[in-house]
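Handout, page 2. Input:
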Amino acid sequence: MLGGGFATRLRPLTLTKPKPLLPILDLPLMDWILRNLAKAGVKEIILSLRYLADMIKARYEEGERLGVKIHYAEEIKPLGDGGPIPLIQKEYGIDGPFLTVYGDIFSNINFKEIITFHKKKGGLLTLALTKVENPSRYGVAVLNSDSQILKFIEKPGRDQFISNLINAGVYVFEPEAVRKFFPNKTPISLSREVVPKLVKEGVAYGYVHRGIWHDIGVPRDYLIANIDALNNFTSGTEIKASAKISERTEIIPPVYIGENVVIEEGSVIGPDVIIGRGSVIGPDTRILSSVIMSNVVTEGASFISGSIIGDKTYLGRWVWVSDGNVLGDDVVVKDGVYLARGVKILPYKEITSSIYEEGKVVL
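Output:
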């Protein structure tokens, strides 16, 4: 699994934790991926890490908790998304087909099914594909009737929209593909330098995934992924037994309320709200379409809409958080502060006065 990137587009969320540890319904993204791999019968997983690697290693250790064996390959220098693969393949002596999975994809891809598909087709690469409305951010593929990839274009311009089937971030490689088609250098880009070669040789196939899929690229993607998980992996309202919610609180489904959350009287929560463990929502607070991470405190009489609030952030009374705000971890917002749309606040900042400039970044 590839999880070494800096995730700069997700800042300020990724200034204090690596992208694979960002929570989806209060559970790190990487937990979802590892559990899905274990469910498919995968027993051994190698995590390629660099940025904040110690945080990931501390959480997963050797993988016993998830029923898998985890090894770690730490990059000394940036290798791109393809660079770690030949090094790992050689070091671990991998002599059969192997999965390569991006650590920033939230999906319900059936890994067992894609491996079976790969063996049936007999190619050197099987690439998971999924349909999106706007393919301009991704690698785009065209298939024939036998699922062979005929064309592959990375991040096409509008005049190159040949398909809406895009790279879903899951690959099955044969060792022969690594020996023959990976350049003898680093860093390596899979989508620009490796996949096109395999497509040209006619040995690449596409497995079309038609379920849940989100690329956690920017804060908006992350918020949407949480809301989609809320709608697909809960019954509409999931409230942990240890949460304490006033009888005078209104819950508008769907919502997720984590362990030991406290919500005081007069608050209205939902729809599309995720509140992480240990958070305290003061009286008369209105929250909708937002992710509130763990151990957040709001004193009360505040409004939060369409935003992401980082761990251990403190909001005073009468705070207004407009759509598109992203507050990093351990931010303090004083009483009566108004935050305009799209404001981003880096971790460990104290905001004492209102911000009226939309899209402002507080460094």
